[in-house]
Amino acid sequence: MRSSLIQIAVNEDESVQERRRRVASLVRERAGAADLVVLPELWTTGAFAYERFGSEAEPLDGPTYEAMAKAASDAGVWLHAGSIPERDPDGPLYNTSLVFSPSGDLAAAYRKIHRFGFDKGEAVMMGAGEELVTVRLPETVLGLGTCYDLRFPELFRGLVDAGAETLVLPAGWPERRREHWTLLARARAVENQAFVLACGTAGTHARVPQAGHSIVVDPWGQVLAEAGPDEEVLTVEFEPGQVAQTRELFPALKDRMLGLAPPRR
Q: Which residues form the CN hydrolase domain (predicted)?
């Protein structure tokens, strides 16, 4: 299976409309070169451009949905279109990921569960998702997370319990914590014996330099490919069957001890 992670540069000198058109073109260029294409978190606005969330928020089936559905269909690829600031007419804003099939149909939507900001920014401006989401592809089952979710291993263990074999994580991760990004991506792969496809942004927006360094990790924690700091298309071929082989060869997941009593006081 071939996957392309498109590490988009989110810069303030490019309008949302221009970036949407440019990214759709980049997706179309993956026709015949990838089976699955992954985009970063909040690439239309920038993950730290909090003041733009409200003005740039769109309904689930808004302009980004339409552009990415058409791009997925034109390229004939599965497309994880990163995430958008979603405006729910009956509720708050959400940080929502969209996954499209090669026919351009919406295969899944995931509302980010763990919101970053420590009582400001995304943490107070957006609602929290409440559901784990998996997507069954012909070759593998995707488990969806977004950026800050990476720091919460119980989410990914829940996805594995739901059948996930490949964990896909779009992000807008800051450069100053880049080492955490790489470390946690490898940890999530090792502890869940799953592939991790983590796609970040490049550039600088809202005065926050982005980490870049999108990464693909195998179930043993080996880095199969890693991008640099700038805009880049990172393409890697991997064998989804390695997940089952790894879990059979080293069956650590079977030794989990659940429902332990709290310590005595």
A: 1-240
**Residues paired with 196 in a beta bridge:** 167, 217
- What pTM, to 2 d.p., does this model score? 0.96
112, 122, 165, 199: which is the annotated catalytic residue? 112
How do the domains of the chain map onto residue ranges?
Answer: 2-252
pLDDT digits (tens, 9 = 90+) for 164-197: 999 999 999 999 999 999 999 999 999 999 999 9
Q: Indicate if 147 belongs to the active site.
A: yes
Q: Which entry of 41, 86, 122, 165 is annotated as an active-site residue? A: 41
pLDDT classification of 263: cutoffs 50, 70, 90 = confident
Residue-wise burial string across 123-141, b where 16 or more C-beta atoms lie within 10 A, e elsewhere:
eebbbebeebbbbebeebb
Fold for domain 2-252? Nitrilase/N-carbamoyl-D-aminoacid amidohydrolase (3.60.110)
Helices (H), 80-121: none
User: Is 41 designated active site?
Assistant: yes
Contact 20, 159 (CB under 8 A): no
Q: What letter would DSSP give residue 166?
A: E
Residue of 56, 86, 139, 147 marked active site: 147
